[in-house]
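Hi everyone,

Forwarding the result from last night's run.
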Amino acid sequence: MNKSVPNLSHRGFVNDIVGRVDLLLSYFLVANYSQTELYYSKITSLPYLVKRFGEDPRQLVSQVQSSLTTYFSRYFEGILIECDFQYLDRIAATGPYRITIQITALDQNGVRVNIASELSMIDGTFKEIARRNNEEPI
C-alpha cells in the first residue's frame, strides 16, 4: 500500500504520486528544524541545512541529497535523489549559486514521477524556485 502524505488543507491526506512528491518537497523547503519538541532533530529542513552549510555549496548539496533520500524513502517503493550546484558566475566560481534537485520516485503501482527543482541562492537566501515534473508509468 502506498503511504499517504498528511496535509493540513481541505485535501486531508494526499495519495497520488505527483501530489505526494510535490508536498514532501514543499515541506522540506519550508520546515523549521526545531518546529516540534516531540520530533526534535528529526525534521528534514532545507533552511536548517542552509544555515549549517550555506557557505559551502558542495557540502550543502551532499547534505540535501542525503536528507531527501532518507525522507522520501519513508513514502515510496523506490527513490533516486540527485543534487548538484552551479555558481551563477561560472568564471569567478564564487558567490551566488543555483542548486538543482532531481527526484525520481516509484510507487507500488509501478508509476514513476520525475520532478526537478532549481533553487537560486543569493546573499544566503533562496530568491527563486523553479519546478517541473513528469509522471510516467513504467
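The first helix runs from residue 17 to 30.

Cheers,
N.
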